[in-house]
Amino acid sequence: MKLYKKEQLIEWVSKNSALTLEESLDSRLEEVISRYKEFLEKNPDESQFQDWELWWQLGGILEELGQVPEALAAYQQVIKLNSYWVQAYQNAIKLQPENYELWWQLACNVYAEQGLIKEATEAYQSVVKLNPDFLPAYYCLLELQLENWEIWWKLGKALDKQNQYEQAVVAYNQAIVFNPDFDGDFCNDNDIDDGYIYVQTSGDYSEPTSKTKIDLIKSDLKNTYIKLAKQATDLNVYRHLSKTWQRQGNLNKVISFWQKLVKTEPSNVNFNIEMGNILLLLERRNEALNSYYRANQIYLEEARRNGRIGRLFLITLPKSGGQYLAISLQKGLGINQAPLPGSNNISFDDVLIMPSVHNGLHSSKDIIVVSHAYSNDFNRLAITQYVDKLIVNIRDPRQATLSHIHNLNLIHRQAGKEQLLLSVNLPQKYFLWSLSEQITWQIDEGFFPKAIQFIQGWLEAAEDPNFYPPILFTRYEHLVEAPEKYFTRILEFYGFSESSFDFPEQPKFQEKSHYRKGEIDEWKKVFTSEQADKACSMLPEKVNKFLNGSSDAE
């Protein structure tokens, strides 16, 4: 992250606000703050300031000066531009600890997205403590702690207060299911009538039409719950009814229930997801994948019709220009990049760690996810749960191997980067070998056979009738030779207009850098004839056809 000195901060703000300041440093800073406030009033969308790191620095200065509202505005702008920067939420909450919306944003945007269950739970608890009537926080808590009877009870109180009586009873029932000895107050004071609780069972739902004693609810939980759930339209009621049948071991009833819902509303994203979850539980994997794929198709096609980008997933062979491609798509489309936990930049990822499907589908974020993941069963399942389309970027594995070797040697010579080499599993004296010796080892048992496995795996995925997302295969060689045509193919694949994309400049290749040469057949000059023959002989027919441009995958 950039760290701005006061002079740099003033210069940046002055430049982007058209300020002309000539006073001393301290007085200039006061003037910048003054002009900054004036600028916010006249430009509420803050469209000129798109550098979240600058807003972060500016927020800290404003906080030091005691300018709390302005500091909060700066931190909110950080959150808007980089929703993953947890310190911005924490600083804003420190200034405004009673603001439940800040806690809600922190829980959803950061903790839940990153799978930090404990932190997310505590943040959601802070939300309902500050605003007991905020229903979404209860539902999120129940996603994390389904059997917590206190959350069910508090949810019932909140629903009851908002006159959602039938769903309140469902929540109260669940509180009793998880804590049968609980004899607390199930209704709000203004609804108490000699120990009765209002339950809507028929007719116009604007007013309650019947009363049921709490004792009756306790004695007939199942019938009351099913009757109310059939009347309700809230997804959480359907989901909790399904969970109840699962606990009873009645999986056939569960699958029949969701099949009817999907048939009734085939374009309902959540119904298709729940259907996939149950099918996966029943080990009906291919049917589950189809349900997940339909859900993503529905959700992402609708998002793109409404002008959003949605979620892009980019799988790249290491040393195939993946970093340049990801950054170019990120900036060109104006979206964030979300690297996967556990991923690295120099080797292959054996495991693909995906965010929660449910949270992901309800996220308003447009993002691109990047990985060097293999095409194994777990990865195919995770990807199908997450996107409707997939880009796989490939480079000739012989050239990628040579580039990988040079990259490892560069990292080895740079102090402080040794930990990056731990995931590569090199022989002990590897960096004492000659370049030719390194090439031989990488061809025989290092990067090269893994690259072949990577390419062949994704080519097979494209032919697998049970892997539903269509794959666009892109080639590093095409990126070097015709970059505009290369990016145009990607835009056409997703249905994006060229006018919505800022085409990037070509990278400047130079020795001893991440973009070393950018050549496509340097290996022919560097490999010995024996090394070249060995590498060529190791290429499977499917991979060789693809590299020669005779594969349907291209």
Write a concise keyword list for the protein shown above:
554 residues, mainly alpha, five-stranded parallel β-sheet, two-stranded antiparallel sheet, 27 helices, 7 strands, globular, disordered N terminus
Mind explaining what this structure looks like?
- Helix content is 57%, strand content 6%.
- It has 27 helices and 7 strands.
- The strands form 2 sheets. A 5-stranded parallel beta sheet has the order 4-5-3-6-7, with helices on both faces.
Q: What is the average per-residue confidence, as pLDDT, rounded to a whole number?
A: 75
Residues in β-strands, percent: 5-15%
Query: What's the total count of β strands?
Result: 7
- What is the percent of helical residues? 55-70%
Low-confidence stretches: 1-6, 16-28, 185-233, 355-362, 512-516
What's the alpha carbon Rg, rounded to whole Å? 29 Å
Shape: globular
Largest sheet: 5 strands, parallel
* Structure annotation, total helices: 27
Report the span from N to C terminus.
39 Å
Widest β-sheet, arrangement of strands: 4-5-3-6-7
- Structural class comes to mainly alpha
